Amino acid sequence: RGDHSLKPRCLVLEGSPAKTILATATAENADLIVLGSHTYNALERLLLGSVANEVVNHSKTPVLLVPIKNG
Predict the structure, then answer these.
(1) Regarding beta strands 33-38 and 63-68, do their DSSP bridges make them parallel or antiparallel, or are they unpaired?
(2) Which of 1, 18, 50, 68 is buried deepest, with most CB atoms within 10 A?
(3) Is 49 left (phi over 0), alpha (psi -120 to 50) or beta?
(4) Bridge partners (DSSP) listed for residue 67
(5) Side-chain half-sphere exposure of 18, counting CA atoms within 13 A
(6) DSSP the chain
(7) 51-58 vs 17-27: helix crossing angle, rounded to 10
(8) 14 Cβ neighbours under 8 A, 6+ residues apart
(9) How far, CA to CA in Å, does 24 sit from each of 8, 19, 69?
(10) In 23-61, which positions are buried (b, 16+ CB within 10 angstroms) versus exposed (e)?
């Protein structure tokens, strides 16, 4: 019924968010990156950028995005 030896970790680090997440996932040999993601429309995403978008597009580690409701 699954691997019960999994040990999730939560880290608090400083730096550029996407770069720090990607570097830490590689350094820690992470099996999965879990990120919360706000739902923006296309224009907001274009103007504001997105840490989740950068991580998803550059990660060699699987990424699970969890939607965060605005408001």
Answers:
(1) parallel
(2) 18
(3) left
(4) 37
(5) 12
(6) ---TT---------S-HHHHHHHHHHHTT-S-EEEEEE---HHHHHHH--HHHHHHHH-SS-EEEEEE---
(7) 40
(8) 20
(9) 14, 8, 27
(10) ebbeeeebeebebebeeeeeeeeeeeebbbebbbeebeb
- Tokens 């907001």 label which residue? 44
Find where tokens 């965060």 sit. 68
Residue-by-residue pLDDT tens, the chain, 71 positions = 566 677 787 889 999 999 999 999 999 999 899 988 877 777 766 655 688 889 989 999 999 988 887 66
- Residue pair 65/35 in contact by the 8 Å Cβ criterion: yes
